[in-house]
Amino acid sequence: MKAKARDSCRAMFSKLGIVTLYSQYIFSILMFIVKHKDIFTFNIELHKINTRHKLDLHVPSVNLTKVQKAVYYSGITLFNSLPLGIKKVAHNTNKFKNELKKFLIKNSFYSVEEYIDRNAT
Question: Which of 2, 34, 58, 104 has its Cα between 20 and 30 A from that of 43?
Fold first, then answer.
């Protein structure tokens, strides 16, 4: 694992199985959501129409920035940005934890915005 001073650590994180600080933050919030999923509302609970966003959490309409930056609201955004395969196992906490950990180690995110916008490009 010889790396030069100017080399990116992104590949090193993945190779060593280490999560970045932002990935650890994302992991903690998503584990909070899965463990307390009874306080959140899924889209399928609001309407019984079979849509592609049925596994997403319902985003409440709030105007205060303070509320939008809180764990409840930002956690919904992070959960809705997950790949579909990980969302499908959200009912099983242990399987969700393992799949999420693998996903975060593989991708090594350097910011929360990078995690949310990863599919936009």
Answer: 104
3-state secondary structure of 69: coil
19: CB partners within 8 A, 6+ apart: 13, 27, 101, 104, 105, 108
| CA atoms of 120 and 111, how far apart (whole Å) | 15
CA angle 39, 40, 45 (to 5 degrees): 120
CA 117 and chain centroid, separation: 12
Residue range 92-102, pLDDT digits in tens: 999 999 999 99
Q: At what angle do helices 93-107 and 21-35 cross, to 10 degrees?
A: 160
DSSP state for residue 88 in the 8-state scheme: H
Domain boundaries, the chain: 10-109
Q: Are 17 and 107 in contact (CB under 8 A)?
A: no
Q: What is the pTM of this model?
A: 0.86
